[in-house]
Design a protein that fits this description.
Distance between the termini: 49 Å
Mean pLDDT: 97
Shape: globular
Low-confidence stretches: none
Length: 277
Amino acid sequence: MVTYVDADATPLRNTGQIRLYGKEAFAAMHRAGQLAAACLDGLADIVKPGVATDEIDRYVYEFGAAHGALPATLGYRGYTKSTCTSINHVVCHGIPDDKPLKDGDIVNVDVTYIVDGWYGDSSRMYLVGDVKRAAVRLVEVTYESLMRGIAAVKPGATTGDIGYAIQSYAEAERCSVVRDFCGHGVGKVFHDTPNILHYGNPGEGVELRPGMIFTIEPMINLGRPHVKVLRDGWTAVTRDRSLSAQFEHTVGVTETGCEIFTLSPRGYGCPPYPTGA
C-alpha cells in the first residue's frame, strides 16, 4: 500500500514512502534544476567531433565547482566520474574516458548537481557533427516521448498514465521502450520512491498528488528494448547493438499540473542546439 508523507517529517533516505514537498522545496529544486540545465546548455558549445567524453566530464565538474555545487554521481556507489556519457548503442550510465567523439555519433549527457542539499537531475541528447537521419529521428521521438510523459502529469493522474503516454507514442513510431531502467523520486534524496516506469496502462500505478517530485527519463531504442550491463558494472547497452537515446527532466506535481525544474535557460528543446549563445 502506498503511503504519502510530509517530506519534512522523514529521514534522508529512501523509506519506501512518497514524500510530499512544499513551496520552499519547489523553489530549492528550481535552483538545483536550473544549474544542471545551464550546464547542459553550455555543453552545446563543447560537444563536437574530436572531443573526448573526459573533457565533457571535466566541464561538468568545473561548472558545478564554479557555482558551489557538487556532481551527485562523483563517488556514488564507487562511480568515479562527475557525469554519464552514453554514446550510440549505450542506453545509460556510460563512463567518460579519453576516446574522442566521432562525426555521426549521438550522445546523452546526464548531469545531477547537489545544491544546498537538493538534487537537480537532467539529461539531454547531443548530435555530433553530421548525424544520419535515422539517428536524428530516434532523438526526436525520444524527446517527444519525454514531453508527452510530462504532459500526463497532474493531480489525480497515475504513474501508469505517464508510462502509457510514452509507450504508446514511441511504439507507434516503431521504436521500443527500455524496461530495465526508470525514473525516480528525487529531492533531498538522489533516488527515492516512487519509480516512474516509461511504459504502462492508464489508471494503473501510483496516484500523483501535489508536492511529489520525480524524474521522467525515457530510454528509447531504435531496435528491440532489451539491454545488458557490461563488466564495468555501470554501462548498459542494447543487446542488438541498435541506437538508443534518452532525455530527462525533473518535475514537481502542482495543484493544476506540474512544474519542470530543469528547463533550458537558453530555451533549448530537441537538438540540434544553437552554439555560441
